[in-house]
Structure prediction request, 368 residues.
Amino acid sequence: MAERRFGVGYALAPKKQQSFIQDSLVSLARSRGIDLVRIEREIPLADQGPFDCVLHKLYGDDWRRQLEDFRAKNPNAVIIDYPEAIERLHNRISMLQVVSELKIEDRSETFGIPKQIVIYDKETLFDRPAWEGLKFPVIAKPLVADGSAKSHKMALIFNHDGLSNLKPPIVLQEFVNHGGVIFKVYVVGEYVKCVKRKSLPDVSEEEKLGSLEGLLSFSQVSNLATNERTDDKYYKKMHLDETEMPPQSFLTDIARGLRRAMKLNLFNFDVIRDARFGNRYLIIDINYFPGYAKMPGYETVLTDFFCDIMEKKEREVEKGLEEKDGADSRGCDKEMRKLVSNAYCSDGDDGVLPVSPLSREEENPIQV
Ligand SMILES: O=P(O)(O)O[C@@H]1[C@@H](OP(=O)(O)O)[C@H](OP(=O)(O)O)[C@H](O)[C@H](OP(=O)(O)O)[C@H]1OP(=O)(O)O
Ligand SMILES: Nc1ncnc2c1ncn2[C@@H]1O[C@H](COP(=O)(O)OP(=O)(O)O)[C@@H](O)[C@H]1O
Ligand SMILES: [Mg+2]
Ligand SMILES: [Mg+2]
Prediction:
């Protein structure tokens, strides 16, 4: 019998496509039955394919509508991930809300998010009582995190003078000393990989007392060119090798919790270790579909992920059809459809993905 092959369509911005779609990934995936196919931006998505799976990192109403049309026409295809779920990460408040709601028990390590407030206008910015409880230094981050260069422009604010140049809407977040190293935790379905990167250096008590300028601007501090970041020299120069990693099982617990709560498969989160406590970790940023190509062995990790999804989808479709046949013959198709649909919405330990083999008519589009 001919080998079953799967088409995975990808819709990515040019820079992302260049970094992610490398020959090494394409050929490994191909050898395992997965054909990675570029989705043309000039042609409606629903007119392309067939695709068993769509992978995307594009924004805007038009793209959302195209995905909706595609989904209506191809109820058996898997979309990784739903725009409704991705959108939460485009706002730095909703992005971290999910962390505050997460509960992980029986661990000596604790986690949370830094103290923060959102400022929508200039008046509130200078209204001290509005941000009582938040101490300098703070980091000012654009509220919107939509991938634009502007959304990565930040400032470390040491005192009141530093506030005047800020342009709300912004998030003011307590700057937490963390030894100048950030942990980036990459998640691909159930796979979790942590790497160390250079971060902002600690601020001393003296500096806090105001010997510095009011404001220090920066952007994407951990994002150096690929070769600089991965080679041994970078690790040595930045003293990264001296920094102990957080326990992998702890990060895996957080990753799993976030994945379930957010209903996302492809993301990374930035973690810092609070220098005031040895075992307190703070999550400061979550990114959709980050730069996976920087992750060692990303080709294998991503190919395994695609294969898992496709196998799961095949099983679910078969199961759905069997159940539907049974239901049809007993004349209770509608009820059975609901049951089967709900089953796919569950997020059990096996990492069930957002697949529904039957009609999505009765589903809430946000539910995956
Ligand atoms: O470009 P890269 O490979 O550095 O990846 C960026 C990510 O770097 P990281 O993997 O975390 O080191 C980067 O992560 P940070 O925000 O720098 O933590 C973002 O995910 C960025 O996407 P966007 O601009 O927020 O949409 C990512 O940019 P895109 O590739 O998605 O444009
Ligand atoms: N609360 C914080 N305390 C200390 N350093 C921080 C804090 N928030 C951000 N940083 C530093 O600023 C960098 C950029 O912030 P981040 O929220 O990750 O924005 P971006 O989405 O642009 O990556 C981080 O990688 C880290 O080095
Ligand atoms: Mg970040
Ligand atoms: Mg980010």
